[in-house]
Amino acid sequence: MKMSIFFIALSAAIGVGMWFLVIGIIFSIGGGDLFKVTHYDSLFFNITIFLLCIVIYLFFARHLLEKKMQLLLLICVASTILFFFLTPWLIESKSSLNRKLSNVSFSNHEKFMEKVDVLIEQEHLPYRVNIDKSRERFKEIRNVNVVVLNKTTNEEIKKKDIDELLGLTYGEDVRLKVFNKSNERLLIDFVIDLDKSISFCDPYKVCRDLVLEIK
């Protein structure tokens, strides 16, 4: 019984492995639009391993037939085929789960907005947190706290403004979207990492004119 389960699990693993090998072969010959150039080293390696898997599988099937275990062989073949076609779905499911696990919860986002609002008030900075817009943008992103700020003055964004916002103690990564006073125009959109470096900034022209160092 244990050996049967092992053979079925092994067959499933072979199905997954062969899917990756097929994708590797496709990309190696430029079929995945990877610069449309054949990568002969990778192509030879993937084809060799693929053929080796087939040879091992044939010996495996022969062994089961000699032992008169046709039913187990059918189950193993079915497992290989099933997991070969299920692999893309399994990869996407894993990625989706990872995204969900890395998402910030709505309750934590609410607390974070309150924290930023208090920090801005304590430092007497010319901004106010736009709660509704922050919630709206957060629903679109979810993997980082998003806070929409409105400038309370009609001045354009300056380097001093960025330095003031960088100086706040957020305690985690944050994406700040700064709009003008009437909330009609985006002045700057940037991500501040935990170490207070900037890892993303938009619009490019504004970030360049402010001479911001992007990590």
The proportion of strand residues reads: 5-15%
Order of helices and strands: HHHHEHEHEEEH
Relative helix content: 55-70%
- In round numbers, the mean pLDDT is 85
Structural shape: elongated
Class inferred from helices and paired strands: alpha+beta
Task: Give the strand tally.
Answer: 5
Stretches where pLDDT falls below 50 for ≥5 residues? none
- Order of strands, main sheet, comes to 1-2-3-4-5
Description:
This protein has 215 residues and is α+β, with helices and mostly antiparallel strands. Helix content is 60%, strand content 13%. The protein has seven helices and five strands; from the N terminus they run H-H-H-H-E-H-E-H-E-E-E-H. Helix 1 packs antiparallel against helix 2. The termini are far apart. The mean pLDDT is 85.
